[in-house]
């Protein structure tokens, strides 16, 4: 088949909104200090790695995994304090759960609503699932614009509202009372995405049954298990019963279930690293604010910091840091409110020190 014939077939059958998308870009691994992806920087110590490998050796790979992940779900319920009476479903990362929630409510003319700048996958998965997408700009200092959000609820009648709490990529947690009013007024589902719950001071999970339209989503990626691709959503059993109809069988592999169960046996290791990240976050924020050329560092309740550099310099700063062996995220150009902004994941003390030294050299250069 000629290239022109293949292109004609693609043009004829691929949805125009998908053709207009760009694939989500993940930089390839490189020999750098990696502070771009909000990962936990502390690996397990050697003795735990050996014990984990031994546990995996007992997994019968010739058999399908537990389709309902019953043991893991029970242990996650206890570890995260999921309210009695709430149901739980696991996904291959939060992305799969977002897709399933969208497919649950998708239909002609239906819309996803979210404040922005926010998590990029909300828009991408909305388009992938055939839903419209509407973004409500955040107010000054990346606060939730409650008036604008409530007006948008009335105008577009969204099928689902996604709100990251704390927000990505800005790191702040929105005003709880304002968010509660948005949940109350939303005509459809509201998903509070608590990917950074471990680093924050508040959660809607204890109240997930207090609203008829609320789901709370979490992931174990940020606490140190990003390689597992394990997310969860909690809500009233009536909602989760419908979601389960869309979940593909065996979506959580046997190795993921075994690894997550092992990690829950050693929660203290994860908790120590989370506490270390929170402590380092404060020191990193102070160090950033002291560097000439850093115009603003926003408070964060996540495991990263968003900061603004000199006007028009974000690309130069990003590439300059890469030349110094440090990789962070360039947010400039991703959203109008993120002009000149960059985001750095909180690393280990020596990684943060190297980042700060490199940034000082780049900005003074």
TrEMBL record:
The modification N6-(pyridoxal phosphate)lysine is found at residue 222. The keyword Transcription does not apply. It catalyses: L-histidinol phosphate + 2-oxoglutarate = 3-(imidazol-4-yl)-2-oxopropyl phosphate + L-glutamate. Residues 31-359 form the Aminotransferase class I/classII large domain. Homodimer. This is Histidinol-phosphate aminotransferase. It comes from Alkalilimnicola ehrlichii (strain ATCC BAA-1101 / DSM 17681 / MLHE-1). Its EC number is 2.6.1.9. The keyword Cell cycle does not apply. Its cofactor is pyridoxal 5'-phosphate. GO terms for biological process: L-histidine biosynthetic process. Coiled coil: none annotated. Pathway: Amino-acid biosynthesis; L-histidine biosynthesis; L-histidine from 5-phospho-alpha-D-ribose 1-diphosphate: step 7/9. Transmembrane segments: none annotated.
